[in-house]
Amino acid sequence: xxxxILNKADFEYDIYSLTQAFFQGEELYLLYDISEDEKxxxxxxxxxxxxxxxxxxxxRLTLSVSFAKNEESxxxxxxxxxxxxxxxxxxxxxxxxxxxxxxxxxxxSLYGIFSRFTGKNLPWGTLTGIRPTKIMLKHLxxxxxxxxxxxxxxxxxxxxxxxxxxxxxxxxREEGIIKSLHTISxxxxxxxxxxxxxxxxxxxxxxxxxSYSIMGMKNMIEPYxxxxxxxxRSSYELMKDRTLDTVYIGGGTPTxxxxxxxxxxxSFMEEVLPMNGILEFTVEAGRPDSITEEKLKVMxxxxxxxxxxxxQTMNQKxxxxxxxxxxxxxxxxxxxxxxxxxxxxINMDLILGLPGETKEDVLYTFDEIKKxxxxxxxxxxxxxxxxxxxxxxxxxxxKYAINxxxxxxDIAYKAAHDMGLSPYYLYRQxxxxxxxxxxxxxxxxxxxxxxxxxxxxxxxIVACGAGTACKKVFSDGHTERCEDVKDIRTYIxxxxxxxxxxKVLFGHSQD
Length: 511
What we know:
By secondary structure, this protein is α/β, with parallel strands linked by helices. It has three domains: 117 residues, Rossmann fold; 46 residues; 316 residues, tm_1862 like domain (pyruvate-formate lyase- activating enzyme, Alpha-Beta Horseshoe), CATH 3.80.30. It is 41% helix and 20% strand. Helix 10 links the parallel strand 10 and strand 11. Helix 1 packs parallel to helix 4, helix 6 packs across helix 7 and helix 9 runs parallel beside helix 10.
């Protein structure tokens, strides 16, 4: 266990995340050494971590972060299990009034301490957020040249040359797409719509998305869709003076619904939304065990332009282990059926680092994927998410090796290149194996526009459905969110509250 003690409830996410990146797989315990007077206004979660008797819990290492008054300096100390000092560093931000400067200076110093202690360098340096390319894209769009961006990422964030190269290739591709989107949608007046279907055939081992077994929720489908339609209609009324760029139906697994239910949802959308003018209409077909010829026909009839048929791996033993109740042959059959019906933009998702998979398993997966030639390939690094079965039942799975590395990521990049696919967006997650990234590859013209919009935060996202989150992007670059409740029954009962939240978020002026 590693203990983190702060004398102020500030920057805790950044400190925790960077510690987690260096010490993957270890339990981290965060607590606060705060006076009684300072505890009054703290959130409950923070108050719970102020009990200093928890210092007695045995820790392999203790990180102490001590902020001086007015944050003119920060003392970082790393101690061993006997609380003997291993390393310390006094951080003096150049501008104590600039929170960004304080945070970056502290993280660079903390990185140095951890790097010297572990002998590790992280490919993404001090960056712990999920959107590393957002920083680069902002500077590119504001006129900074490639050399300036490269220097910034190396000096300010300690990012490796390889990841800077990757980021630059992604943002240069995104730049053209984003500019054309904004031109088409009315000089930045566009928005995207996400619709969540929180049902799945089964829940995969690694999944933490809000989803429910379709077999156990049959009686909830109709009332859920009724509430969802009400929310979609209200959202359109709220945004009717703006241009709808993309629609993305995700989940869960949207194709858990029957063909009749999908047809009803799509027909309703065509009645209330300007579907004829949108640039992209994506449906995550996802699980091959939920795809039928009838459902594909419904999607084709309603002009769905992009679908996902997701294998995650082409190794049957791994599919069985992670709870994907389909076969590799089913995947190939579904993919072939979609191609034969005229779908010309098919995405596939793969995961590196699945339990028990070897380098040979990964090579086999990519050899099989090459035969199918998807238009868009998303390669994920496994993230062991807190609310997944993999995390909750770790004792059952820790015997399986969970390996991800730059070597495996290099295999993925080479395979994508061999298929004529190049990177067009990327993002990261907490607790990601190998501290790497998720990367989307696509042939030119097949890029997932919604993926770019949600990751680079270039336009508002209106989200409808249980467990979804809206995002409003302001002119100064900051964002605000509102979320729908995750529980389906609560969502149905409180649908008017969900609608009201959107009115509050989007109902005022753009700035």
